[in-house]
Amino acid sequence: MALFNFRRDTTPATSGNRAEMEAFLQGFSMEVMPRTAEKVEDFRALLPKGTRVYIAHIEGTPIEEMVATAKRINAEGFPVMPHFPARIIKDKATLADWIARYQGEADVKQALLLGGGVATPAGDFDSSMQLIETGLFDGFDRLHVAGHPEGNKDIDKDGGDRIVMQALKWKQDFANRTDAKMAIATQFCFDAGPVIDWVNKINAEGVKIPVHIGVAGPAKLQTLIKFAIACGVGPSLKVLQKRAMDVTKLLLPYEPNEFIADLAAHKAANPDFGIESVHFFPLGGIKTNAQWATDNGGASGVPANQA
Asked: Taking the model in full, what pTM does it have?
């Protein structure tokens, strides 16, 4: 039986590439769930001080677990941003209760508002715009919304982007007429080309809300492909499928070096490019992702312009 000598590529990056990566990773954020956060003894041992931590609210997770996770992470010194998925929230009273719990018990001042990946709404809400219109988030410091660089067929069923673009323009109008600090946190992708095209397109359409690009952290290739298919990742899924066909790479963990390096280079060459930050989905584990980010220069915490 032939044995393959698998090893990680340790070729050092050039100083230029390293500087671009460090600048691009400044102020990265991390997404956790209550069950994944439980596996981390102390986030202070993993993340730079001030790193924003999103807390994903999966359907069926009790609000008590969400609030307890937010309280714990906030107490360790990290600004927390829980998800508010519109389609799992029954009504305005439920939303008000959640917000009161987060604010009263965990000092939450930031929120990610999204439709949520549920086919049938549980109650009165179907979109993040409806959540905003309740006025219940008016006292929050930051409101982030979801973005899909490769499309969202749950919304635009024809594969286009007409409805999504209308929603982004509505959110831009809201940002213009209020003092809300907003950003678009996107689904994870694997190919810089479609991301660059999407950011340029929404900017050309008048949507200037800063983009926090979703990035899948280091993980087994099979794990990433499973999550990518489940989450509806589009054209850039081909990057993983091509890698899976190469037996010399099949057993190696995927790392987002090339994806981030390409975006970092584009940002360095085009300072006004609309990506402001990187948002990690630690699909291969929080510790693994945090170590990768730190090793590649992301040890700076949240910049002042994102506070």
From this structure: 0.87
Spatial separation of the C-alpha atoms in residues 61 and 250, rounded to whole Å: 34
The span from the CA of 116 to the CA of 283, in Å, is 19
Evaluate the CA torsion angle 171, 172, 174, 178 in order and state its sign. positive
| C-alpha to C-alpha distance for 47 and 230, rounded to whole angstroms | 28
205: exposed, middle or buried (Cβ count in 10 Å: 0-12, 13-18, 19+): middle
Tell which CATH architecture fits domain 19-297: Alpha-Beta Barrel (3.20)
Dump pLDDT digits (tens) for 219-234: 887 777 776 666 666 6
In the chain, how many H helices and how many E strands?
Answer: 12, 8
Confidence at residue 119, expressed as pLDDT on a 0 to 100 scale = 78
As to burial, measured by CB atoms within 10 angstroms (0-12 exposed, 13-18 middle, 19+ buried), residue 218 is buried
Residue 8: phi, psi to the nearest 5?
-75, 145
Extents of the domains making up the chain? 19-297
Give CA separation, 180 vs 72, 103, 111, 144, 174, in Å. Answer: 26, 17, 11, 10, 8
